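Q: what sequence does this backbone want?
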């Protein structure tokens, strides 16, 4: 789905307002769903990425659509700002220096592969977000991660590390899914 310029502005404002409310009240914004376009009311999954001075400052999201997109944005913006375990909570002094990026995900689709080599051959750099999982281990990289890891072998190796697998681990039980995203 493609979003209008107005919808994108609305989502970015919801994310910023949710972070501001988190600083002021300690809880995320709860947007009034009927006040927004039909497109933003549809269930969609998203990630909210926070950048400060060109560096990652937080990134939290959902892989499955469980609520209206505008609510998912509000929740994930709050989580990225205050509950990303890699970072301290965002402070009010940082707000003017934080850039918000929203990635709205397509529904993940199963991606059948016969081997790691088959996966490396079938991945579409700069298009696919990839999810790998086995047992209780799971990780994903958004399509935007291809910017910093353009080589499919490096992309997959870092994705496996993120899930807690060894660099050269492969199993017939690894489940692979892929998705695309609209970023703004």
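A:
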């Amino acid at each position: 789905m493609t979003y209008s310029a107005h919808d994108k502005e609305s989502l970015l404002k919801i994310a910023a307002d949710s972070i501001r409310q988190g600083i002021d009240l300690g809880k995320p914004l709860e947007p009034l769903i009927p006040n927004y376009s039909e497109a933003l009311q549809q269930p969609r999954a998203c990630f909210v990425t926070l950048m400060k001075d060109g560096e990652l400052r937080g990134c939290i999201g959902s892989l499955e659509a469980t609520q209206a997109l505008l609510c998912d944005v509000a929740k994930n913006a709050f989580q990225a700002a205050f509950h990303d375990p890699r970072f301290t909570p965002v402070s009010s002094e940082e707000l003017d220096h934080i850039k918000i990026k929203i990635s709205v995900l397509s529904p993940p689709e199963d991606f059948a592969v016969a081997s790691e080599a088959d996966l490396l051959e079938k991945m579409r750099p700069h298009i696919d977000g990839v999810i790998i999982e086995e047992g209780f281990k799971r990780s994903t990289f958004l399509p935007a991660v291809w910017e910093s890891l353009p080589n499919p072998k490096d992309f997959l190796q870092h994705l496996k590390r993120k899930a807690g697998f060894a660099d050269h681990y492969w199993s017939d039980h690894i489940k692979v899914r892929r998705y695309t995203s609209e970023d703004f």
